[in-house]
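Appendix B, record 7
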Amino acid sequence: MSGSERTALAASRRWVIKVGSALLTNEGRGLDAAMIGSLVAQIAALRAEGAEVVLVSSGAVAAGVVRLGWPRRPTRLHELQAAAAVGQSALIQSYETAFRSYNIASAQVLLGHDDITARDRYLNARGTLTTLLRLGVVPVVNENDTVVTDEIRFGDNDTLAALVANLIDADALLLLTDQQGLYEEDPRLNPFAVLVDSRDVHDEALDSMAGEGGALGRGGMITKLRAARLAARSGTETVIASGRHPEVVAQVAAGGPIGTWLRTGKQPENARKQWLAGMVQIPGSLELDAGAVRVLRESGRSLLPVGVVAVSGRFERGDMVLCLGPDGREVARGLVNYSAQETHRIMGRPSAEIAPLLGYQGDEELIHRDNLVLC
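Structure tokens (predicted):
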């Protein structure tokens, strides 16, 4: 496919944009204010077109290394964490200042592995990010490097960006790097290497084309390819492009022939439904009354406690549960916002009574429509 056929990208309304440390730190010489200013200006312009943007930003460790006066990136875990702590504050302050000039609020969001893999924290992270987007805020996401251990880290921010794309159902993921995109051969070894314009993300030929990362960032083309395949699970289209290309964000968002487009071939909504439907651990079920079944099928709305007449199984917040009609047939399945014990207490009751019954104000939906798939 040529760039002129990138209609899926031009139609994208929810973006995750990841920028690497080599770009932000000017190859290790400290935070590059001009690059940060340019990136923020482009994000502001994209938002002005009606898009939502989550920014996943590397650079905290690299910025901290420079501020601490170290000659190179350390390898010891606690030194890396110290560098991240020093650099993260400088990084987020730079973004806050730049976004403020466009009257845009930004928010620092530090995520760990458990925030995306643990059931309850997954829902919390998703709810926080989608709420920030609804409020018109730009979330600036990074891995919580100051406390995470090697055993439970994402490994690189390309992977984190892909998981954030899954988390918020992003239409598109833009991985900004210091190269033009993915080449058929390593351009550092072959100056005549051909840039891959567009390819199916699952094409096995791509594996031999990807190369390793540099000294500052850990995210080479191998991690970007893996990230694109992760993002594809929820139907997110991925583009790898140079962050130094003038107006790269606008050109990619307009469907221009820039960088490498790794196509999913799926509609995001259908891909998410496939992901939800494919979850095999289903520890419980909810029996719905006829009215709730009708609302789900005809209106596509969330499931409220008032429509539930019985609860079976032992499940916790964030677990997948079945939704059964009065005839016992499966109507839907989804990620539940309350445990089985809590659901017993609030079933059949209006959402306004959740706080008095449970002693705290939780979600008004038992299963939000974004986490619900009809059968």
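Remarks on this record: The chain has a mean pLDDT of 85. The chain has two domains: 3-268, 279-374.
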